[in-house]
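Morning, I've got a small favour to ask if you have a moment. I've dropped the whole record in just underneath, so have a look.
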Amino acid sequence: MARILCMVLTAWLMTTAVWAQDNGLNPIYKVALGDITYQKQESSKKVTVGKVLGAIADAVDGRITDLNNEDYIPLAKNSVRSGLTHARRLQVVESDEEASAKYLVTAQLSDISATRKVKTYDRKDSKGREYTDTKTYYSAITSVAITFKDLQTGELTTSTISGRCSEYSMTTSVDEAIRNALAELANNIYEYYNEVYPIRANIIERGTEKKDKTKELYIDVGDRFVREDVHFDVFILGQVAGRETRKKIGRIRVRESMGTDISLCKVQRGGKDIKTAFDDGSTIVAISTD
């Protein structure tokens, strides 16, 4: 019995040691944050806004022309830093660690602006008399061009990302609208670089199955990289002429992170194909989508 317990314990420790290591598919890139500057843009008839490289356009009728943009530059810089810091595979390093950085990141704020929208509503008072009620709401736009410079090759990559607070959010002050837009800017930066540098996981074990479908499974990525409700597309890996091929077969959602390098996932689509892949002994991987 003691020998059996020792063998079980040894096997468990070996498994834990494997899981405790990063799966090698998700390198962390250190980035040194350089200058974040502001270049005021001239008013144009339309301004492109929205989530990452978005395509939502707002007419600039009612543009606030007396806005002191300088007041919001520190907040905008914090939004850029916050967005980069929270990207899963980026690590913003301080000045004393810049020598170890892979990228130097600079950013140019190209827009901090607000517009005014006046809306009228037909109302009735308690006696049934009609009157017109007027409300003023504000929207705001913030945009930034972020440049990554590879410190080994010198290659430059620039992405323009925007944050927007719509008039439909019913903000009643310029300040509130701009702060909301800056909060969305930080979130959009985070989401964009999570898409540029997705998390890749091996599917290591099947979980609950029902009839001919896999309902749950386990991946070798945990709370070091992902949290509950992060989604992954599922692929079967193959080879053609020595090159990796992927065939998408489903979609999963992280239900619970069970450690730094293991998570339980719910199968949202493709349960039948995923079970078939397990049964066939295919190599199955998952790549994050958000």
About this structure: The CA atoms of residues 222 and 258 lie 7 Å apart.
